[in-house]
Specification:
The complex is a heterotrimer of chains A (about 400), B (about 350) and C (about 160). Chain A has about 400 residues and is mainly alpha-helical. Chain A is built from 22 helices and no strands. Chain A has a domain of about 100 residues. The longest helix of chain A has about 60 residues. The termini of chain A are far apart. Chain B has a domain of about 230 residues: Cytochrome Bc1 Complex, Chain C. With about 350 residues, chain B is mainly α. In chain B, helix 6 packs across helix 7 and helix 11 packs antiparallel against helix 12. The N and C termini of chain B lie far apart (about 60 Å). In chain B, a hairpin with a 2-residue loop joins strand 3 and strand 4. By secondary structure, chain C is an alpha+beta fold. Chain C has two domains: about 45 residues; about 110 residues, Rieske Iron-sulfur Protein (3-layer Sandwich). Chain C contains one helix and eleven strands. In chain C, the strands form two sheets. Chain C has a seven-stranded antiparallel beta sheet, with no helix packed on it. A four-stranded antiparallel beta sheet of chain C has the order 6-7-8-9, with no helix packed on it. Classes of the chains: A mainly alpha (about 400), B mainly alpha (about 350), C alpha+beta (about 160). Chains in contact: A-B, A-C, B-C. At the A-C interface, helix 17, helix 21 and helix 22 of A face helix 1 of C.
Chain lengths: ~400, ~350, ~160
């Protein structure tokens, strides 16, 4: 139905234009379904037609002539050919400036450096090209939620190829998606639909997609986790990791499977990540033990302060201000957990000390509120004594009256 | 003093009042201790009026102010915690005393002719007291208040035919919202106090008119005790002790305040109503989902309503007592129901 | 009740002196009881002054003189921290001071004219928008009301 309407519209357009240089397009006589697929295509909207990508002669009535290589017909371009075809326009700075001055023009250049591009250059037909992520006949701007390259669909798009069945026979790992699903980033992104959490392309790049090299990891992670990256780079660990050719960040936190952190990761214990290089009891292990103990202590103090505030609040005491102040202590704990990336016992201890001081002050003021509650009990004792005295004397008086009644009685 | 009395008497007519007071007596017999319960209930009601009025000075109804104002009363206003805690505790004890007052009046057959209307006003007052408790519970607008009211009004919704309308009427909509708070507030501080004062006035007037009832088959011991000052003095001792108890409870176990009501939060675990609703609450929880062709919940709710109705109509059902004869069947039925309710209440308490 | 207190019958065993002492004590305790009731009630009826700067639903965040353009301060909005910013182009804005990453308290950095979270170097511009570091979303904004030389921030009318 839609197809018919489209065709009619096209024919009418051709007719009303008087047939001068009306865009006669015989492709759709046979490939009408593709026209329909191209419904909201950004290129079609900009006036491009089949011939602009596929070549051939759209005015020819016969199929042989229309799709004759002699008339420039290229058919379905694959691999590098497809990338080059898109790049023909998209790398043309002068041309793109006219159409959309904000669009970058380095996609092809980037693609050539990517693993995808390198394989494509070698003639690999199964590798991702522009159309694998952006689509072919229904290309939408990346900002469109329906675009497979857009924020909301990019994980689905990448894992459409990076899975065991598509990658069969290749040597690269295919467990990225299940690992990512377990990670803090994946949980945020996929379960909570938080589009601010990083997806595949946030670490691997878009057109130049490739695994970050050992030296790049800190920069990639550090783009968001700047504090930890800076502390790490300033620590003695940075050069040691380089010497061992161990990637920073991911050596302890994994890649793809970047789990929620825990204080137990510190040290050589059961969940400790240091044991890859350190042995229990070495000076570094002792230092991490102290750091961990400090954070545990701070966590406990915060907990205690919360308890004291809760008790006071339940008794109806106003603890608004100390509750506000306790946030400073909670900040310190978060900050301490970042500071450990300097691998300095003193620096961590300094942060922990700040936090403990605040928590102690809060607890003290909560306790003073509780003391006020005790003061009420003393007030009660005085009042109750007065009331009981009155009741007792009154009872005595009533008793006397009763006795007299019995004597006065009949 | 005498001149002042004469002056007032001349203008107001106090002499009949004094005469009435001087004439009023309370019978003496082995059950006469129970005559103090009515006075105790009256005292606690006055405490509720007084503390309620004081709380009204600072309480601000409304979703964005109710919780904050209660927090201010508890935390900022001097002795606010005391007034609020006494109001809370006194409500509990008030309903307990009323229940015992009603039960002893029942067992002493005080409802028999000519005191049927006294009995009816008494039962109505108990209903009003329960409504006071239920509506007052929501007013602090904290999490427990909110969910207890949600669950409580839900029970009203199970009644056949009228349930849905009743639920809407109570909640002022589909859910417990600010609209519910507004109408519970109006009920608690305007409608119920008027109803209570009217019923109480009638109740006391009738008690004056008929005097104290002596149970059938009980012999009086000696001359009746003058109400004034003898009986009143004993009353006063009891009241003072009650006040001391209230102050102690308020200071040792003050009324708490949970986090502010949040309709989107999940209900706290094992939400329970006030203790005086434990019996129907437990009944509805324990009743099987289906009994014959009826839904268990509906049957339970209707059962309690019928029980209440039978209780109110007992003066007209107990023909033997009306003839001043002993009516053991009613005494035993009273005990059975009493023990059943106390049992359910204790069970709910412990679970 | 004195009305009915007729002269003592000769049979009353209580000596007159003890009786009058007991009566005196009764009066005293009655007075004490009345005081124990009246004292809290009188104190209750007169409200304490509202803590300074806490009008209904709004909090006094600062004096205008306190914050020069290009500065900011963290203040308590109830139990939660909030940040008041006086922008270099002389606008007043207030946001929640809880970073959208891990809830640390953010501060104003005059060297970069940004709101900055010290825990993980998260940065927000002066409209509360997250511009760098791990914070996933902007800071919620509160309404600021200027009244004379006082800056109030309302707890409600929170804009996300």
């Amino acid at each position: 139905m839609l197809r018919l309407a489209a065709l009619t519209a096209l024919l009418l357009a051709a007719h009303s234009a008087g047939g001068e240089d009306a865009p006669v397009n015989t492709c759709v006589d046979c490939h009408g379904d593709l026209l329909e697929e191209a419904g909201g295509d950004i290129h079609r909207a900009a006036g491009f037609s089949c011939v602009d990508c596929h070549g051939g002669d759209p005015r020819a009535e016969e199929q042989d002539r229309a799709m004759s290589p002699a008339r420039g017909y290229v058919g379905v371009p694959t691999a590098m050919a497809a990338a080059n075809m898109c790049g023909h326009c998209h790398s043309d700075i002068e041309r793109m400036r006219v159409i959309n001055p904000r669009l970058p023009t380095d996609q092809l250049a980037q693609y050539r450096t990517s693993d995808h591009g390198k394989l494509a250059a070698r003639g690999d037909e199964k590798v991702a090209t522009c159309v694998s992520c952006h689509g072919s006949h229904g290309v939408r701007p990346v900002g469109d939620p329906a675009s497979p390259a857009g924020k909301s669909r990019v994980v689905e798009t990448c894992s459409g190829c990076h899975n065991p069945s598509y990658m069969e026979g290749r040597s690269i790992p295919t467990d990225q998606l299940p690992k990512y699903e377990q990670s803090v980033h994946g949980r945020k992104r996929l379960e909570e639909r938080d589009l601010a959490a990083p997806a595949c392309n946030d670490c691997h790049g878009n057109h130049g997609a490739a695994p970050p090299g050992v030296s790049a990891v800190t920069h990639v992670c550090g783009r968001c986790h700047a504090t930890q990256a800076e502390l790490f780079e300033g620590s003695t660990h940075a050069s040691h990791f380089r010497d061992f050719d161990a990637p920073p960040c991911t050596t302890c936190h994994n890649h793809h499977e970047i789990l929620a952190t825990s204080d137990d990761m510190l040290g050589t214990g059961e969940r400790g990540v240091c044991s890859a290089c350190h042995t229990p009891g070495d000076p570094c292990d002792e230092a991490t033990k102290a750091m961990k103990a400090g954070m545990t202590r701070l966590g406990e103090r915060i907990e205690q302060a919360h308890d004291a505030l809760d008790r006071a609040r339940r008794l109806g005491m106003d603890v608004e201000r100390p509750t506000f102040e306790l946030a400073g202590s909670e900040d310190a704990l978060v900050r301490a957990r970042a500071t450990i990336h300097a691998f300095s016992e003193e620096r961590t201890e300094a942060v922990v000390k700040d936090g403990v001081e605040i928590a102690t002050a809060v607890e003290t003021s909560a306790e003073s509120k509780l003391a006020e509650y005790q003061y009420r009990r003393r007030g009660l004792a005085v009042a109750a004594a007065m009331l009981l005295l009155f009741a007792g004397l009154l009872a005595l008086r009533a008793h006397r009256l009763e006795k007299r009644r019995l004597q006065d009685g009949p | 003093m005498d001149r002042l009395w004469a002056w007032l008497d001349d203008r107001v007519g106090l002499e009949p009042v004094r005469h009435l007071m001087a004439q009023k007596t309370v019978p003496r017999h082995r059950h006469s201790i129970f005559y103090y319960l009515g006075g105790m209930a009256l005292f606690l009601f006055i405490i509720q009026l007084g503390t309620g009025l004081l709380l009204l000075l600072y309480y601000e109804p409304g979703v964005s102010t109710a919780y904050e104002s209660v927090r201010r009363i508890s935390g900022e206003i001097p002795f606010g915690w005391l007034i609020r805690s006494i109001h809370r505790w006194s409500a509990d004890i008030f309903i307990g005393v009323l229940a015992v007052h009603m039960f002893t009046a029942y067992q002493m057959k005080a409802y028999r002719r000519p005191r049927e209307v006294t009995w009816l006003t008494g039962v109505a007052l108990f209903g009003v007291a329960l409504a006071f408790g239920f509506s007052g519970y929501l007013l602090p607008w904290d999490d427990i208040a909110y969910f207890a009211t949600s669950v409580g009004t839900q029970v009203a919704g199970v009644f056949p035919l009228v349930g849905k309308a009743l639920l809407q009427l109570m909640r002022g909509g589909e859910d417990v919202t600010g609209a519910t708070l507004a109408r519970f507030f109006a009920l608690h501080v305007v409608v119920l106090p008027f109803a209570a004062l009217g019923l109480l006035g009638l109740h006391l007037l009738l008690v004056q008119r008929h005097g104290m009832s002596v149970p059938p088959g009980v012999t009086e011991k000696g001359r009746p005790r003058p109400f004034f000052p003898d009986f009143l003095m004993h009353d006063l001792v009891g009241w003072t002790l009650a006040l001391a108890l209230l102050a102690a409870l308020a200071a040792l176990l003050p009324a708490g305040l949970g986090p502010k009501a949040d309709p989107f939060a999940s209900a706290p675990a094992d939400i329970k109503p006030e203790w005086y609703f434990y019996a129907p609450f437990q009944q509805l929880k324990m009743i099987p989902a289906h009994i014959g062709p009826f839904e268990g919940e509906v049957l339970g709710a209707v059962g309690f309503a019928v029980l209440g109705l039978l209780f109110a109509l007992v003066p007209f059902l107990d023909r033997r007592a009306a003839r001043e004869e002993s009516s053991r069947a009613f005494s035993i039925a009273g005990w059975v129901v009493f023990i059943y309710l106390v049992g359910l209440t204790c069970y709910a308490w412990l679970h | 009740m004195d009305e009915h207190d007729r002269p003592l019958s000769p049979a009353d065993p209580t000596p007159a002196g003890r009786r009058s002492f007991l009566d005196w004590l009764l009066g005293l305790s009655a007075f004490g009881t009345a005081a124990a009731i009246v004292y809290p009630v009188v104190h209750f009826v007169f409200p304490p002054p509202r803590p300074k700067g806490r009008a209904k639903g709004a909090v006094l965040a600062a004096q205008t003189s306190e914050l020069a353009p290009g500065s900011g301060k963290v203040f308590p909005l109830g139990t939660r921290p909030a940040i008041l910013v006086h922008t270099p182009d002389d606008k007043w804005r207030a946001f929640t001071a809880k970073c959208t990453h891990l809830s640390c308290t953010v501060t104003y950095r005059d060297d970069m004219n940004m709101i900055w979270c010290p825990c993980h170097d998260g940065r927000f511009d002066l409209t509360g928008k997250n511009v760098a570091g791990p914070p996933p979303r902007p800071l919620a904004e509160f309404t600021v009301v200027l009244k004379g030389d006082e800056v109030y921030v309302t707890e409600e009318a929170e804009r996300g």
